[in-house]
DNA sequence: AACTGATCCTTGAGTGCTCAAGTATCTGCT
DNA sequence: AGCAGATACTTGAGCACTCAAGGATCAGTT
């Protein structure tokens, strides 16, 4: 019984990574082809776009994405270089460096969001009803929240 | 309406990767610490263990894992070197190289599976009931299946 | 029996992360 | 005022993949 449920969990975990691999590949392929930006970079832009003043501390960005601070530094590098994101200082705390969306960044984000919504919707639809996507979303939300 | 459902899909996709990142990290940390083998290597061993004669063609392994053939070659390298997996030839087709679990590989797999079941179970439990895990598993199975 | 195209696998270069270690700055205790 | 520890960020080395290209072998056609 408890054994049964444990093997179910492992099985679910494996399906989880299998499904996620497929989804991420699809999203990444379309976003890269259409906009020249990877799925992970898009995630960064999206979070910045949703934040007040479209800017965030790097540490908070890492927390929001489930990455390390290191990963955020690496990801932000190219985005700064191509002018989508700006580096801003905090006048009160010299340690922090904000990442802020530029005007071009905001514009690109809008376009990319349309593509991403389309891809995500197409990916879920054939196997899941709208209600099922909602269920999935709720479960994933709980798991992502407690994840750390 | 249709717009609403599209933004839900994107939101679900983001939660999906957020939750998966957290889960994979956890699994990886425990398996690496306790057995010195990463989560992705464990997945390879698991699939081999479930296959007839505990061996598979590399191409089939790639398909099962959702990876490219290239990724499988890279992952198998270290496992062969430390004696968990053997390379076997097909007498009828000189192109194919089977990956086969060794005796040590089978033994380690059994131990690792116990750890992995425990971690997976612990990870799902606080946020999901057993029934919810079952629902999740079914949805993910459908998505993973249609993924390609 | 040779030519064409598909299949299986590997390799070089590059991406996107990780951890561990290091620098700089801030905060609180004494 | 000064020191201790926490916090923010960066950097070097390394891991787990990817794609594109290439080599070897096989199966079907002529």
Structure notes:
The structure is a homodimer of 148-residue chains. Chain A is mostly helical and 148 residues long. The first copy, chain A, is 72% helix and 9% strand. Chain A contains six helices and three strands. Chain A has helices at residues 2-35, 39-50, 58-65, 69-81, 103-124, 130-146, and strands spanning 55-57, 85-89, 97-101. A three-stranded antiparallel sheet of chain A has the order 1-3-2. The longest helix of chain A has 34 residues, at 2-35. The radius of gyration of chain A is 18 Å and the shape is globular. Chains A and B meet through helix 1, helix 5 and helix 6 of A and helix 1, helix 5 and helix 6 of B. Chain A binds a DNA duplex (30 and 30 nucleotides) through helix 4.
Oligomer kind? homodimer
The SS-based structural class of chain A is mainly alpha
The major beta sheet of chain A can be summarized as: 3 strands, antiparallel
- Provide a count of the helices of chain A: 6
Strand order, biggest sheet of chain A? 1-3-2
Q: What are the low-pLDDT stretches of chain A, counting only 5+ consecutive residues below 50?
A: none
Beta-strand content of chain A: 5-15%
Query: What value does the average pLDDT of chain A take?
Result: 91
Helicity level of chain A:
over 70%
Radius of gyration of chain A: 18 Å
Shape of chain A: globular
Helix/strand order of chain A: HHEHHEEHH
Distance between the termini of chain A: 28 Å
Biggest interface between chains: A-B, 55 and 56 residues
Strands of chain A, total number = 3
